[in-house]
Amino acid sequence: VCVAGYGQSDGNEILQLIPPPTLLTKEAQGLCPERDFKVECGGFSERPVYSLKYVPDTSLLVTSGPPDSSLQVWQVSAEDSDVIKSVSTIATENGTEQSWAKIATISARAPWVLHGSRLDRVQITEVESRKNVYTAASRGSEELSTLAFLDCNTLLLCCATGRLCLADIRQPQSLVEATAVPSAPCTEQWCMGTRHGAQGSEPSSQPVARLSSRGLLTLTDLRKTSELLALAKARVPSPGSGAEFLCVSWAPALEGYLAISGFDGTVHVYDTQSWDSSGREAEPIFIHKGHAFGGAGGSGDPPLVTVHTWHLQKPRTLLSAASDGSLHVWDWVQPCGKC
Amino acid sequence: MPEIKVTPLGAGQDVGRSCILVSIAGKNVMLDCGMHMGYNDDRRFPDFSYITQNGRLTDFLDCVIISHFHLDHCGALPYFSEMVGYDGPIYMTHPTKAICPILLEDYRKITVDKKGETNFFTSQMIKDCMKKVVAVHLHQTVQVDEELEIKAYYAGHVLGAAMFQIKVGCESVVYTGDYNMTPDRHLGAAWIDKCRPDLLITESTYATTIRDSKRCRERDFLKKVHETVERGGKVLIPVFALGRAQELCILLETFWERMNLKAPIYFSTGLTEKANHYYKLFITWTNQKIRKTFVQRNMFEFKHIKAFDRAFADNPGPMVVFATPGMLHAGQSLQIFRKWAGNEKNMVIMPGYCVQGTVGHKILSGQRKLEMEGRQILEVKMQVEYMSFSAHADAKGIMQLIRQAEPSNVLLVHGEAKKMEFLKQKIEQEFHVSCFMPANGETTTILTNPCIPVDISLGLLKRETAIGPVPDAKKPKLMHGSLLMKDNSFRLVSPEQALKELGLAEHQLRFTCRVHIQDPRKEHETVLRVYNHLKGILKDYSVQHLPDGSITVESILIQATAHSEDQGTKVLLVSWTYQDEELGSYLTSLLKKGLPQST
């Protein structure tokens, strides 16, 4: 688990943590008194870390954050040291605005990072050589909110406006647009979550979820982008905070489950299998409220959940982090049908 | 440069055998004398041959300080003082002095009686060792000898645990032992004042740990106990009389009260009284809440927790029992364990580390069939849980303590160097101090900058304060004077007074330099050219052209004469006193470059 700070001042830390043994293995293996995380290694970043991704099959990390859209590459585990070292910077041409790049990584043909702050600045760079491998055709200059590799050839881009764009990197000039979102006030911002299906399945067979800052959730099947698979509304507080921390993700081990966060100190879990396209309010399966209660209480603003993710193996376990520096690992108990 | 030398003793990078040698201003102090519980041979003791190859250690050490009663900090003490040989003072807090011998004896019993070891200290040795102990109070300055003094600070962690400040003159070292920066239910948090030691020595064993929230840990424990009791099972918690047991008791008592539970909770006979006795005796060592309520009601006399009687173990129905000893190696806890092990509804919760060879250790490693005395096999069907409730400082706690004490240097012991690099950088960046991480057996030398107090004469003080900006208490001021060292006193006086006192005459040094300048004009014209040139360049200095034809720059004199043989060359005589050396040299090199054409 890697955590990083996004404070304004110097000296943000990046920490790679090893969860306690009880969380690492699938079944309980022997006894262990530890419930604590261990800092395996740590590093210092001069700029705030807004986005952090591992590069699969390597010991590298890529981070991005203001003031510009360049990426920082870090070396994580060295034999003789526990310091995360800055290895290189992937520079990009900067606009005048204070933007930062969204990133996604893959290591299919080589370790690649897909990055960009706007729709007309999307590129894929090889991490180690910093060579540009692909530049997406420009189709507008909207701000991007989420990027993803659907497989080693297919990219999915989600703009802050909710617009989805598909691209095949073998055909540089193509950028296929997917459905727009239901009309909404223009201040509404969107982000997306994608899911990898079982090995060998078509990447576009998995529905793509989009979440708006008003709590609207749409599900789209990429093979049939003309209509929405489902539309629902989450019961969330009206958008007080910005859309910076909006996050939606699919459960890797539970079919049809997704989680959303970024509105307040809670994380909601939904079962989308019962959803239709009516746009009705959906009932969450579970709401994790720990961050709101966990803090010192009283002083300062209530914590805001900044990001969440699912445990890769344990089906109902999630990890979430909040603006007060807390990290929670939690699960929920499915109420049984009888009794 | 004065220096402080620190050497952690012991072989190997292992955790758990604390023993640190500190050499400060000629005094040698040993901090803690712990035993490693995992080894059965000499590796469990620190390697004292570092101090001296043979013979007793009394002459080599000025004192020994023990931080608290855990065996990895005091376990080797009887071996050290009676078997290797040391007769000097051993300092520790009052609770530590009271509890240490009990733990030592307990451990001796397991090692010798149960495991049959021979090279181990005896009961008598423990007693003889404790006779050398001098007990100290918190925040009490203890003079070990004329120059060496020590002071204990509250460390939390366990009853009587202390952090120690060791001071010789103006050099000081603070050793933390084990400490806890967050208060728990019966102990407060560690605290130290802004004593600004030259060096802070802290253990870094848990530095890479980010602690789980206490609430979650406690909830986990309570859940397990509750679930077992709800299904009618019995919970056995083997504990040592003092330490985490009190914490767990207070936790259970509060939970039982809140949930209105009826199942009985028992605490081993003898244990309750002993624990109560020590906590009452050392009430000032517990946290504020306990002290406040102690007047009305003894915190350690519980409503739901009663004294245990052997017969109760056979009672049907759910119950929770705290029993000693903690590793299930003998006594009551083992007896109860044997009775309850066969029922899968029951549970045993081990709250700490168990030494190899004990039943506790065996069941924690997964063994479910144990061989007991008389070749009997015991099948363990009860649930075995392992929960650590130890109170140690993590990285955040270490940073907090450094912030409180403001040391000039930090030394981390008991961590692997490779795994401490990040913490070292973090400390160096945040506090701008040097951070050291010696391996066991490696000596670290820390240079100190001691302050030496000096008397200043009134005349000099008056004179210096008249010059320059108004003195600011927060800013150092550069002064000019003479330091007289006589007998053992230092005095700062003006140079004139020093000369007078010593009966010496002052010498004046004056330098003169000749610079040749090509100039066919008359001397006074050359002088004028030089004057204008210098005036133009040396805007911050007082450049004057005197009526007698010479130029002064501040107190430096420049005169021009014609060269005796060559009328086209003028010779400039530049003359200055030793005090104006810098300006004099500068002027000379400036003039040597020649005069600009246009003047």
CATH homologous superfamily of the largest domain in chain B - what is it?
Answer: Ribonuclease Z/Hydroxyacylglutathione hydrolase-like
Ends distance of chain B? 55 Å
Strand content of chain A: 35-45%
As an assembly, this protein is: heterodimer
Number of helices of chain A: 2
Domain Beta-Casp (chain B): 245-363
Subcellular location (chain B): Cytoplasm; Nucleus
Protein name (chain B): Integrator complex subunit 11
Pfam families (chain B): Beta-Casp, IntS11_C, Lactamase_B_6, RMMBL
Question: Can you describe this structure?
Answer:
- The complex is a heterodimer of chains A (339) and B (599).
- With 339 residues, chain A is an all-beta fold.
- Chain A has helices at 21-24, 290-294; strands spanning 2-4, 12-18, 37-45, 51-55, 60-64, 71-75, 85-90, 102-107, 111-116, 123-126, 132-135, 144-149, 154-159, 164-168, 176-177, 190-193, 208-212, 216-220, 228-233, 247-250, 257-261, 267-271, 286-288, 305-310, 317-322, 327-331.
- With 599 residues, chain B is of the alpha/beta class.
- Chain B has 4 domains: 3-210 and 391-442, Ribonuclease Z/Hydroxyacylglutathione hydrolase-like (Metallo-beta-lactamase, Chain A); 214-386, Rossmann fold; 454-502, no CATH class; 510-593, 2-Layer Sandwich (TATA-Binding Protein), CATH 3.30.310.
- Chain B contains 16 helices and 31 strands.
- In chain B, the strands form 6 sheets. Chain B has a 7-stranded mixed beta sheet. Chain B has a 7-stranded mixed beta sheet with strand order 7-8-9-10-11-21-22, covered by helices on one side. In chain B, strands 15-14-16-13-17-20 form a 6-stranded parallel beta sheet, sandwiched between helices.
- Chain B is elongated and about 125 Å long.
- The model of chain B has no long low-confidence stretch (mean pLDDT 85).
- The A-B interface holds A 11, 13, 17, 20, 30-44, 79-84, 294 and B 208-213, 215-217, 220, 350, 352, 364-366, 384-388, 394-395, 418-423, 425-426, 429-430.
- Strand 3 (37-45) of chain A pairs antiparallel with strand 12 of chain B.
